[in-house]
Structure formats: structure tokens, C-alpha cells
């Protein structure tokens, strides 16, 4: 009886064409769309997990200052007699809790720059980077191109030499003791005046010429500071060191024009993040044609609310267009996931075929600033791992 009553009411409303009827349709349509938008979470088999773990990985988007774990942060604060601000979390537990509550990029950066204040000596910077390399090695890292922000330290009175020498020592240890090849990428903070960036580039000139620093990047708050503000900085860096690798954060929160302008004005050959590229099909075609690699940071994008779930990233569209991308951890101590965590997050949302993972990791190798011999070595290792698991991954 209730069913027939429902039908009677339904057709009565239909005949009247009342707002109530249209509200009913809107309600059911919204429910349908919400259900469609829900992200599927795929189980990961033990064999698939082992395959992803063993795949040789390159990381192109990790900020060394962003690997500062709460444990190391408080250790260094004590070592260097640093008194943190009263509003800063007072314990490891409270720090971890704060890391779960970033509202956006700027909220994260405000906390991030306070954390940096505990880094004072060469040993501090070496300990920080070494801690990252050890963790990443366990995730299958073979090659790392790591960011660092000298301006954030120099403005605190820390000489640029202290920063670079500490990170360089850790990089040399990673090569010698862990077999990880490394490159250092100096980033400019886009919220600081471009004139400050020019000075930083000149201060670092000898490090570039000595082969200690290999690239230039652009990070920090994106939307208020478009790439055209730093055109002169990038031109100077290229003049000082013609073989320099150029990249820039673009299209994390800002529109696709930030990506296009970084390519056209800054002459970068790589884009960090690049999430918003999906909104411009012509740009996607350009990225694919020119083999411009995007350095994707899945868990970071969720943490900073670029997307609400990893499954919302346009990863399938990039694959369909042939846009190369690598998977990275960004600021892993703050975002709850190192390199393998990000690989597993992607797998749990996209259920990629082993062959697609091979293509992603090989594109990651090809987008690295390493010579042909090292690329072949990594390609061969990827093929070896694929062959090992090919018959058990169906």
C-alpha cells in the first residue's frame, strides 16, 4: 500500500509541475552525482605492494626543509637553544596533530617557516638531509633531485655556505653509502622580492660552477606571485651557468597560465605540481609533445586541499594524453607520507596495470637531470623488477 501511495503522490506532483516535484528531481539527481563522484578504493595485493616497493624510484619534488620530522625538529631546537613561539605546538604529539589540520598552502607555509628556524649549523642541515635519504632508500629511491630554500635561512643570519655545505655532505654520503645519485636544486621564494632572488643567484654562482648545485626552482605562495616576476632571475641563472636545469612550481593552485608562462618566460623544462594543466587541452598536448615532466605530489595535494582525494587527480587524463609525470612526496614530514606512501595512494585509487607503472617510472627516469648511462642503468633495473613480478601480477 505505501508503494502505491508514493506513486499517487509522485504523479500528482508531476501533473501540477510544482517546485516540490522539481525539488524531488534535484534531490535524486544530486544524490546520483554524489555517488558517482565517490572515489573507489582498490585493494592492493601483497605481490603488487612488493612490486611497487621494489620499483626503482626517482624523486624530483621533495623540499629538504619539508622532511623535518617533529622528532628531529625538537632535537635540533634543544641542541641549538632555540625557543619556539608560544603559539607553536609544544610537543611531538601536538605537532603531529597540527600537521593534520592545514587549511591551505599558506597555513602550511606559516608553520613550515617557523620549523626551519631550528636549523643553524652545517651538521643540522646534513642531519636533516641524511635522515631523508635513509627513509627514502627504504622506499626504493635510486635517484633524488632535492629542493632547498637558502633565502629562508640567509634572512635568519645563516650563511648560504652553511646551508649548501651541509646538504652537499649528506648528498655525498647518500651516493657513497646508499647508492643514491643526487642533484641539489636551489629554490627562490616567490613571496620575496625578485631583487632578493637575483642576489641569491649571484651568491650561489660558485656552487653552480663547481657542480654542487645543479638546478633552479621557484616555490612558496603561488597565486599572488606569477612567474613573470622572476623572468630576470631565471635569465641570470642561465647566463651564470648555461647547463643549469630549470623548473618551477606552477599550477598547484593557480590557473594553467602559470604553467604556460613558466615554460615561455622562465624557459623551464619541468613543471612542479602542474595539477591545473588538466583544464587546458592545448597545454596538455604541448606538455606531451615537448616531454615536459610534471612532478606530482598526491598526498600533498590532498593535505593542502588542492583536491579532496587522490582519486580526483587528473592522472588518467595525463596518461591518456601522454604527459610524463613523476610521483613525489613534497614535504613528507608534514604531509604524512614519503615516496612509497604516495605510490600506494595512487595505486589504491587508480588500480594501474604493471605496464603503466613501468611507463611512469621510466618517464620519471627520462625526466631526471642525469646522463644517458645512469638512465640506462635505471631503465634496466625497472625492467628487471617488472620481469620478476610479471607472471604473478595479472
Notable traits:
alpha/beta; globular; 11% strand; 394 residues; zinc ion binding; 8-stranded parallel beta sheet; 20 helices; hydrolase; Adenine deaminase; TIM Barrel
Report on this model:
This protein has 20 helices and 8 strands. By secondary structure, it is an alpha/beta fold. It has a single domain (58-350), classed as TIM Barrel (Alpha-Beta Barrel). Strand 5 (245-250), helix 13 and strand 6 (270-273) form a beta-alpha-beta unit. Helix 7 (122-138) runs parallel beside helix 9 (160-178). The protein is globular. Residues 1-36 have low confidence and may be disordered.
| CATH architecture level-2 label | Alpha-Beta Barrel
Average residue-wise pLDDT: 90
Report the structural category: alpha/beta
Shape: globular
Give the neighbour order of strands across the main sheet: 1-2-3-4-5-6-7-8
The string of secondary-structure elements, in order, is HHHEHHHHEHHEHHEHEHEHEHHEHHHH
Task: Give the N-to-C terminal Cα separation.
Answer: 51 Å
- What is the helical fraction, as a range of percent? 40-55%
Catalytic activity: adenine + H2O + H(+) = hypoxanthine + NH4(+)
GO cellular component, one term: cytosol
Function: Catalyzes the hydrolytic deamination of adenine to hypoxanthine. Plays an important role in the purine salvage pathway and in nitrogen catabolism.
GO molecular function: adenine deaminase activity; zinc ion binding
Amino acid at each position: 500500500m505505501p508503494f502505491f501511495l508514493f506513486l499517487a503522490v509522485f504523479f500528482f506532483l508531476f501533473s501540477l509541475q510544482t517546485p516540490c516535484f522539481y525539488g524531488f528531481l534535484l534531490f535524486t539527481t544530486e544524490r546520483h552525482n554524489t555517488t558517482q563522484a565517490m572515489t573507489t578504493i582498490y585493494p592492493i595485493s601483497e605481490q603488487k605492494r612488493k612490486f611497487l616497493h621494489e620499483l626503482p624510484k626517482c624523486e624530483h619534488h621533495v623540499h629538504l626543509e619539508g622532511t623535518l620530522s617533529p622528532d628531529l625538529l625538537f632535537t635540533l631546537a634543544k641542541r641549538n637553544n632555540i625557543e619556539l613561539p608560544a603559539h607553536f605546538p609544544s610537543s611531538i604529539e601536538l605537532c603531529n596533530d597540527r600537521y593534520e589540520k592545514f587549511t591551505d598552502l599558506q597555513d602550511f607555509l606559516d608553520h613550515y617557516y617557523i620549523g626551519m628556524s631550528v636549523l643553524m649549523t652545517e651538521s643540522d642541515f646534513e642531519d636533516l638531509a641524511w635522515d631523508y635519504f635513509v627513509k627514502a632508500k627504504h622506499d626504493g629511491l635510486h635517484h633524488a633531485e632535492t629542493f632547498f630554500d637558502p633565502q629562508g635561512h640567509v634572512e635568519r643570519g645563516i650563511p648560504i655556505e652553511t646551508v649548501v655545505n651541509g646538504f652537499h655532505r649528506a648528498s655525498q654520503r647518500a651516493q657513497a653509502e646508499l647508492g643514491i645519485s643526487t642533484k641539489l636544486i636551489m629554490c627562490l621564494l616567490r613571496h620575496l622580492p625578485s631583487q632578493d632572488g637575483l642576489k641569491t643567484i649571484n651568491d650561489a654562482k660558485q656552487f653552480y660552477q663547481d657542480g654542487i648545485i645543479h638546478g633552479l626552482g621557484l616555490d612558496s605562495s603561488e597565486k599572488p606571485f606569477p612567474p613573470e616576476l622572476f623572468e630576470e632571475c631565471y635569465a641570470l641563472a642561465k647566463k651564470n651557468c648555461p647547463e643549469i636545469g630549470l623548473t618551477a612550481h606552477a599550477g598547484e593552485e593557480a590557473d594553467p597560465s602559470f604553467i604556460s608562462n613558466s615554460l615561455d618566460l622562465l624557459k623551464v623544462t619541468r613543471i612542479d605540481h602542474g595539477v591545473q594543466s588538466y583544464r587546458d587541452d592545448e597545454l596538455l598536448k604541448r606538455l606531451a609533445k615537448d616531454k615536459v615532466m610534471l612532478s606530482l605530489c598526491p598526498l600533498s595535494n590532498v593535505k593542502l586541499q588542492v583536491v579532496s582525494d587522490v582519486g580526483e587527480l587528473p592522472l588518467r587524463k595525463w596518461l591518456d594524453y601522454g604527459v610524463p609525470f613523476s610521483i613525489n612526496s613534497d614535504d613528507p614530514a608534514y604531509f604524512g607520507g614519503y615516496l612509497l606512501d604516495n605510490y600506494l595512494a595512487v595505486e589504491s585509487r587508480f588500480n594501474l596495470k604493471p605496464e603503466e607503472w613501468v611507463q611512469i617510472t621510466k618517464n620519471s627516469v627520462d625526466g631526471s637531470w642525469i646522463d644517458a648511462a645512469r638512465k640506462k642503468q635505471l631503465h634496466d633495473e625497472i625492467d628487471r623488477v617488472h620481469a620478476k613480478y610479471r607472471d604473478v601480477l595479472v
